[in-house]
Amino acid sequence: YKFILQILKFGFFFFSIFLTCFSKSEVSGISISQNDGNKTLLKEEIIRVVQPGVFDYQSKDFIIRMRAWGVNFPQRNQPGYNEAIAFTEKMLLSTSPKIKIKQEFDIRNLKVVEILLVNGSLNFSRDAISKGIGWHLDKETNRYGPFVISQLKAKRLNLGIWANNFNYQQIQSPSSLPTP
């Protein structure tokens, strides 16, 4: 009988320590108010760049793979690929851009989106085209004016991919059907 009382006292002692340690609303330096205790702590942002123009976006509930609308980039082992991946990572990683869906899913099952950075004042695709990092997909955008003008300027100034004579047109558009 005394043995059972000692076990109960010992258990009560650890239970009271447990309650005092975890009853505070601060755990490991992160303060959580009582109202926000049930909300998710995930930030909506771009968490990974898969390839130039293709990225993973963390929403509140899901991770969604998306592709930039109206622009294409060099593929691996082609001139300009390293610059394109570095540009995409620098511009998009850990940002929370405004995203406008242009197409639910393309042929590769990616959401096609327009990416607006810096409070909606900078279009990622247009910036990539104007710096010669990528080229305009005029069939996808129906020759969208700002992209056409940006590409003409980049070509005229021999920026980025336009500085070499590599034939990028051999690359199929991401929205085109595959050929057997």
Descriptive labels:
180 residues, alpha+beta, six-stranded mixed sheet, two-stranded antiparallel ribbon, 23% strand
Q: Give the termini distance in whole angstroms.
A: 82 Å
> Outline, from the CA principal axes?
elongated
Helix/sheet category: alpha+beta
Stretches where pLDDT falls below 50 for ≥5 residues?
A: 24-34
Number of helical stretches of at least 4 residues: 5
Order of helices and strands: HEEEEEEHEEEHEHH
Rg, Cα atoms, Å: 26 Å
Major sheet summary line: 6 strands, mixed
Helix content: 25-40%
Average pLDDT rating? 80
Strand content: 15-25%
Count all strands and give the number. 10
Structural write-up:
The protein has helices at 2-22, 81-92, 124-130, 138-141, 145-156, and strands at residues 26-27, 30-31, 45-51, 54-58, 63-68, 71-72, 98-103, 111-117, 122-123, 135-136. It is built from 5 helices and 10 strands; from the N terminus they run αββββββαβββαβαα. By secondary structure, it is α+β, with helices and mostly antiparallel strands. The model is unreliable at 24-34 (pLDDT under 50). Strands 3, 4, 5, 7, 8 and 9 form a 6-stranded mixed sheet that branches. A two-stranded antiparallel sheet has the order 1-2. It has a two-stranded antiparallel sheet with strand order 6-10. It starts with a helix and ends in a 24-residue tail after the last helix. It is 31% helix and 23% strand.
